[in-house]
Design brief:
With 256 residues, the protein is α+β, with helices and mostly antiparallel strands. Helix content is 27%, strand content 34%. α1 packs parallel to α6.
Length: 256
């Protein structure tokens, strides 16, 4: 498939015009950023792993009734997605205190929360994506009440499903970030999951050792970032062991 006009370039992905109206091609870069892009690096192979992990999770979420923008993977770094109007909110679901929540509230990192907590940040890089309340969202019209009801319901359903999926392979889902968009189908508008779900957007800890298998390895200079992402893919069955003892990414569920 020939590459088309670039629509948008973000920190970790590029969006290109899709082959059909209402579609885009999402390209996963190897770029890693942290602290609102103050820290940057290029990590060879990260984009390939995130593309495949996000495909795996989006496909399984769709199978349990979570509407999302994923259509199919095109190759190692690209996937075909539905075009949506992104709602300008980062939706964060937290099961365990970590990161900014620990700093803000003085809760020790690793402490299990009384229940899953959904937080919202306003998507504005120049402001550092500030934490906002539902009152802010309503007052400034970033999302309607119906959209907020849909977002919260979907976010909690995603959390329930992914917590179980990761627990089955010995991984604890600490927290994760989601984005949602408005998908227009004629006169109908539907709120659907967009962006990606990968170790870039989730905190994932080994259940036994609490070893970090996510982007915190980059944020905190722990090293072994792509190796940790590969371990997540291996546990999910995306990476298979070859006869020679090396790793092989399984592309059997999509177009090579």
């Amino acid at each position: 498939m020939s590459r088309r006009r670039m629509v948008y370039e973000g920190k970790a992905k590029i969006l290109y015009e899709g082959p059909e109206p209402g579609t885009l091609i999402q390209y996963f870069k190897d770029d890693a950023t942290a602290f609102n892009a103050e820290k940057k690096a290029v990590l060879d192979g990260k984009g390939v792993l995130n593309n495949r992990i996000s495909e795996f999770l989006m496909t399984r979420l769709a199978a349990v009734g979570i509407p999302n923008h994923f259509i199919k993977r095109l190759n190692m770094r690209e996937q075909l997605i539905k075009k949506v109007e992104i709602i300008p909110l980062e939706v964060i679901v937290r099961n365990v205190a970590a990161g900014t929540m620990s700093k803000r509230l003085g809760i020790p990192e690793g402490e299990t929360l009384p229940r899953a907590i959904v937080e919202f940040c306003y998507k504005k890089d120049e402001l550092g994506d500030p934490l906002v309340s539902e009152e802010h969202i309503a007052a400034f019209g970033w999302a309607s009440q119906q959209e907020m009801d849909d977002i919260i319901s979907l976010a909690l359903r995603i959390n329930d499903f992914m917590s179980g999926l990761f627990a089955a392979v010995g991984i604890r889902l600490i927290d994760f970030k989601l984005e949602f968009g408005r998908h227009f189908e004629g006169d109908l508008v539907r709120t659907i999951l967009a962006d990606e779900i990968s170790p870039d957007s989730c905190r994932l800890w080994d259940y036994e050792t609490n070893e970090k298998l996510d982007k915190d390895r980059f944020r905190r200079d722990l090293g072994g970032v792509t190796e940790a992402y590969a371990e997540v893919a291996r546990r999910l069955g995306i990476i298979k062991e070859s006869a020679q003892g090396g790793d092989v990414i399984d592309f059997s569920n999509g177009v090579k």
